[in-house]
Amino acid sequence: MNVVFRRAIRLTTPGTITRHFSQRRRIQPTSQQRIESVIDKKPRSYPTNHQIPYEVVQVQESDGTLNPSVNLPHLLATVDKSTHLVRLISHIPPIVRVLTHVEDKMNKLERKADMKTRKNKGQVTTKEVRLTWITSDADYEHKMTMARKELEKGDVRIDFLFCSPSGVRVPSRLEVNDQLQKVADSFADVSNEWKERVVFRGTARLHLQSTVRASKVMPSRGELEELARKSLERSEKSRRQSKKDPGTYPA
Question: Which of 37, 57, 206, 211 could form a disulfide with 94 if both were Cys (CB 3.0 to 4.6 A apart)?
Fold first, then answer.
């Protein structure tokens, strides 16, 4: 069976055939579309300087005071870009803050720390402490001290694993139980057993979980400032290195 495919054509003049191809126009986005595109993109939700899609804005002071509306290009012309920037902090109405680069970086680090705190809230980590039935007193005390520090922090579970080295007498079931109970009693003020003990052929496992509710502490403003300055110094160093040698990329 022969199948014939025909293309849509248009006759313009006798003997002349022209094919039509769709041509796309480049439509410049409207001001409203530019604003919506900025709002939709989370990383650029609150842009800086010339990336701010508003002609008129209000400047907010550090104490929250709002100044009268000002033309954005005029505001940008008065700002020293080497030390300061204009950051959009609200779309409706358009509000900006004039910040130093350090202050802006501090705000970013603070938001990141807050997000990390919220994300890790309630998460419990599990750690393991390995011991033998003949662990020396100094090593035993050191490991018990480290385990207590972790349990006192909260939001942690610690598995104590006891095993017998080769060539060493395997302790009796009574001796194993006594040792496990000794460990459990020593941490009774900051933990409890959340899982049944396991004893098998000279090895034993004790499962403790902290009863301390860990407090999520945000870094202080002083710590944030130090982190911000170091981060900006690294960025500036990388920028200079890239400018000095365009053929290499900083690690």
Answer: 57
